[in-house]
Amino acid sequence: MLHALQVFTTVIVGVMVGVEFCVAVFVNAIMNALPGDNGQLGRSHGGRLLGAVMPYWYFTSLGLAAVWAVATWGEKGSALVVTAGGLLVVSVLMSVLLLVPINNRGKTWTPENRPDDWEQQTKRWDRYHYLRVAVIVAAFALLVGALV
């Protein structure tokens, strides 16, 4: 049963990392290359869609890592899981404090109502998101390391 928890947790976190990496590296680049207001409209839609799903995914990932850490406390690899859990806490705090406020504004923007500094806010979100992706990639790597 423990092994199933470990594999399930690693898969859930790994897929989350893949989605966030894809957004950072590919989706936003695609949106930025679209003509006219289409990129901003696409980002707003993405903010609504992913903004509804990702909080559950982050908290589920954190919860699963916490259960794994408790279940293996003191065993080989448990320090890696605890560290990964700490990084997932950092990613949640980054999300709540830095990214979500910008996303909550951006998901309501249209070409008619967006603020004058919308592009600067979007670039700030991108920078924070790159950092968050690095944090969750590190957490994922630690979880994988704890499996071996």
UniProtKB/TrEMBL annotation:
Cited InterPro entries: Anthrone_oxy
> What is the source species?
Streptomyces odorifer
* Classification via Pfam families: Anthrone_oxy (PF08592)
Please state what the protein is called: DUF1772 domain-containing protein
The protein's superkingdom reads Bacteria
Its keywords, alphabetically, are: Membrane, Transmembrane, Transmembrane helix
Question: Which residue ranges run through the membrane?
Answer: 6-29, 49-71, 77-100, 130-147
